[in-house]
């Protein structure tokens, strides 16, 4: 079996798993099972990136999305306590609109793939291969030299989004003890300790 045939078989296998798990994400009734199916989708797509020799994108997809973002999604889904019965009500009436949107997206992606294939010869050689570097090394040099400011801005936006998600899912239960950082900061040193003066009394001797 040649290397190209093995690569083609792996491509079709990973693509089938990715499409199947993506369909499970939108068809499963259990939200936790849908999140786990999305994890499988990301992992299969990462394998496709590896076949395309885009090692950096594959690593980022696994480390960032599977290792961090999906854990956050699962945390939010379990904290929101979504009413599944109410969400499934009147689902059929939105099906035609969803089919139209999906068809338009499919036509756009096919058109983009066709245009890219027609103009592949005009795009020039791979910059990473021309520089004699791997895909990860070339992207690392580009991100931390020419695109350092956009990279830092994207990291800041992701951090703000993470904090906002935690704040939105935070719920205060009535019968639980919690701390208020604002009250702790505003407190004065006189209020931290109070000295009480009491008269000394001799303990009474017990009668024998």
Shape: elongated
CATH superfamily of the domain at 1-81: NADH-ubiquinone/plastoquinone oxidoreductase chain 6, subunit NuoJ
Give the amount of beta strand, in percent: under 5%
Extended strand count: 0
The largest β sheet comes out as:
none
Plain-language structure description:
- With 208 residues, the chain is an all-alpha fold.
- The chain has a domain at 1-81: Four Helix Bundle (Hemerythrin (Met), subunit A) (Up-down Bundle).
- The protein is built from 9 helices and no strands.
- It has helices at residues 3-27, 31-51, 55-80, 84-88, 95-118, 127-130, 135-143, 148-169, 181-186.
- α1 (3-27) runs antiparallel to α2, α2 (31-51) packs antiparallel against α3 and α3 (55-80) runs parallel beside α8 (148-169).
- The longest helix has 26 residues, at 55-80.
Pick out its properties.
0% strand, Four Helix Bundle (Hemerythrin (Met), subunit A), elongated, 208 residues, single chain
Brief sketch in words of this structure:
This protein is mostly helical and 208 residues long. Helices cover 68% and strands 0% of the residues.
List the helices and strands and how they pair.
Blueprint (H helix, E strand, L loop, with lengths): L2 H25 L3 H21 L3 H26 L3 H5 L6 H24 L8 H4 L4 H9 L4 H22 L11 H6 L22
């Amino acid at each position: 079996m040649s290397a190209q045939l093995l690569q083609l078989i792996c491509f079709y296998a990973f693509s089938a798993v990715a499409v199947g798990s993506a369909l499970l994400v939108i068809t499963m009734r259990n939200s936790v099972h849908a999140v786990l199916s999305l994890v499988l989708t990301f992992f299969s797509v990462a394998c496709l990136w590896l076949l395309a020799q885009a090692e950096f994108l594959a690593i980022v997809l696994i480390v960032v999305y599977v290792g961090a973002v999906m854990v956050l999604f699962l945390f939010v889904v379990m904290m929101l306590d979504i009413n599944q019965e109410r969400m499934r009500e009147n689902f059929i009436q939105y099906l035609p609109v969803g089919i139209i949107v999906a068809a338009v997206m499919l036509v756009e992606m096919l058109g983009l793939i066709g245009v890219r294939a027609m103009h592949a010869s005009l795009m020039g050689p791979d910059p990473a291969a021309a520089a004699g570097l791997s895909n990860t090394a070339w992207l690392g040099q580009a991100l931390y030299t020419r695109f350092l400011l956009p990279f830092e801005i994207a990291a800041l936006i992701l951090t703000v989004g993470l904090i906002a998600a935690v704040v939105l899912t935070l719920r205060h239960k009535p019968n639980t003890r919690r701390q208020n950082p604002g009250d702790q900061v505003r407190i004065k040193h006189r209020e931290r300790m109070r000295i009480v003066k009491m008269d000394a009394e001799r303990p009474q001797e017990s009668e024998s």
